[in-house]
């Protein structure tokens, strides 16, 4: 029910969607693809993920991620999602300062769940006409985990104005790593 209401709310904002002030950067996109996690002391996990963002003002956007992954050599899977709001401020004609805050949740089924939050700050830039990238530093904390600092690096290669392929890696100070790669549709 909550997901349906959220989806309807995001769809209702589509007519109001705005674009970034920085040339070539769009905060309106949806992407899906392969997701993988390497947790210290636990088996690796992989599966699929979907991500999206909708700008509702030239400097603000809402974003969300969802991933379903299964631990290697087991039937145990988990759902991980986050929902947040971001602020982008133009630094140059092709670069934005980016700050984001999000609510996060991990659901391990019968093993319980964990709620938390994260905050990120960094830069996103149109490096070349067909290539953009970002670098973010973040901090996350929750009810079942101690706070951790992390770095997030990502890039997108654009085939045309709407389609591209994107990749993202998150490196957590405790040694955990997360990857995502897949096609992106931007508008």
UniProtKB/TrEMBL annotation:
Organism: Luteimonas aestuarii
Signal peptide: 1-21
Alphabetically ordered keywords of this record: Signal
Record has Signal as a keyword: yes
Record-given protein name: Ax21 family protein
Matches recorded under InterPro entries: Ax21, Porin_dom_sf
């Amino acid at each position: 029910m909550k997901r349906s209401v959220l989806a309807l709310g995001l769809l209702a904002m589509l007519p109001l969607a705005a674009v970034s002030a920085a040339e070539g950067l769009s905060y309106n996109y949806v992407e899906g693809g392969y997701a993988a996690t390497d947790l210290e002391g636990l088996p690796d996990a992989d599966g699929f993920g979907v991500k999206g963002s909708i700008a509702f003002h030239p400097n603000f956007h809402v974003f969300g991620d969802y991933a379903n992954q299964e631990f290697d050599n087991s039937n145990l899977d988990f759902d991980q999602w986050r929902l947040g709001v971001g602020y982008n401020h133009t630094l140059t004609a092709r670069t934005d300062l980016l700050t984001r805050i999000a609510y996060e949740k991990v659901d391990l089924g019968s093993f319980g769940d964990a709620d938390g939050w994260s905050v990120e700050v960094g830069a996103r830039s149109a490096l070349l006409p067909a290539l953009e990238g970002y670098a973010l530093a973040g901090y996350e904390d929750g009810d079942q985990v101690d706070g951790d600092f992390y770095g997030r690096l990502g890039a997108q290669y654009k085939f045309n104005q709407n389609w591209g392929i994107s990749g993202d890696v998150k490196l957590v100070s405790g040694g955990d790593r997360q990857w995502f790669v897949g096609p992106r549709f931007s508008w």
